[in-house]
Amino acid sequence: MQNFEWNIPTVIEFGKGAIEKLSAMAESGSKALLVYGGGSIKRTGIYDDVMKVMNENGITVFELSGVEPNPRIQTVRKGVDLCKAEGIDMVLAVGGGSSIDCAKVVAAGACYDGDAWDLVLDASKITKCLPVYTVLTMSATGSEMNKNAVISDLTKNEKWGTHSPLFKPRMSILDPTYTFSVPKKHTAAGTADIMSHTFENYFNFEDAALQKTFAEGILKTCIKYGPIAIEEPDNYEARANLMWASTNAINGLIGLGSSCGWSVHPIEHELSAFYDITHGEGLAILTPAWMEAIMKKDPRTITNIAVYGQNVWNLTGNMDTEEGRLTIAQRAVEKTREFFVNSLGIPGSLHEVGIEDEEHFEKMAEKASAQLGGAFVPLSKDEVVEIYRAVK
Ligand code: NZQ
Ligand code: ZN
Hints:
about 400 residues; 2 domains; two-stranded antiparallel sheet; 14 helices; about 50% helix; globular; binds 5,6-dihydroxy-NADP; binds zinc ion
């Protein structure tokens, strides 16, 4: 196991009625920028709940609304301008990963003299940041308890992750009832995203047994509760378990002592950057093909995927022979594909999400493979193109 430090200052307030705890924001000042998306929080009444706590605690609210799924730098800039003009003390995101990521970069941009895009391209420029608070409305990205933000400039087909310890929210409100209204499509995509974060941490050659067992628990939680949440949107236990899975899949815990670079995320971010697709759907489409590609390139990974099959899918077979391990691993990949397509109802190919051409594959693969040097299995540009082609 590698050395590690784990430090997350985020206070999690979990459960029905947790919104009351947002009164703690008053410790950070009296002017907040409320950051939210296309209006779901108004339809669901979450907006009213938030405003009630703000009013009761004497916090003046300014608003940045209309944050896009795959949030744009142009929206971040509007938020930064507002913070600077109004002397905002703190930023409150109410929404999913897009609103939270946007809020984080707005919070840093408000303390930065240059253009906020600099902070996306170069994380070392993030040296000051307003306090960030979140009210999570959808289980997926784990942004509610981590140091990451992903921002796009679709005018340049660019989507990049940035990070800072200063981005870790001061407090996140996790009320599972706030996710009852998440539509089937996004419940499914969110579940796939949680699973993908887990895979990115789980597949490595380190002997970090406890972390791997945590990861398998998260995967089983998604496999059990994802389909229930899709069928019964207001099933509290399903929504609660998915919510806590989403947070723990990417708050650092399961990658401790075994970190390596991520694989499917850089490959997917190019799909979102060029075609603006839903992040979790792209991951679900790519993941089984990625598993097949790494088994082909590095046969040592067959054992990793076979162990996943045994421990997560309860597959049985002969782990003592190469052939036996390969058979279990291939069935594990099939189980994964079937789960995404049949149990979650996610499209199984790129053309089903509107990507009909190969025009950008070379360029996308070049950008993605440049980030895969430190990955579980580094892949070349041509190998990434093959993955895109395999799922066309
Ligand atoms: O915009 P509104 O109207 O709020 O609607 C949203 C949006 O259309 C809707 N929604 C959210 N909560 C809802 C709801 N609809 C009804 N009821 C609710 N309670 O769902 C849609 C998707 O929301 P979004 O925030 O875009 O989804 P998600 O949480 O999946 O975030 C995706 C973004 O996060 C990035 C992705 O790349 C993408 O840009 N990621 C961020 C990460 C991080 N910060 O650590 C890691 C991830 O790997 C990921 O890359
Ligand atoms: Zn993700």
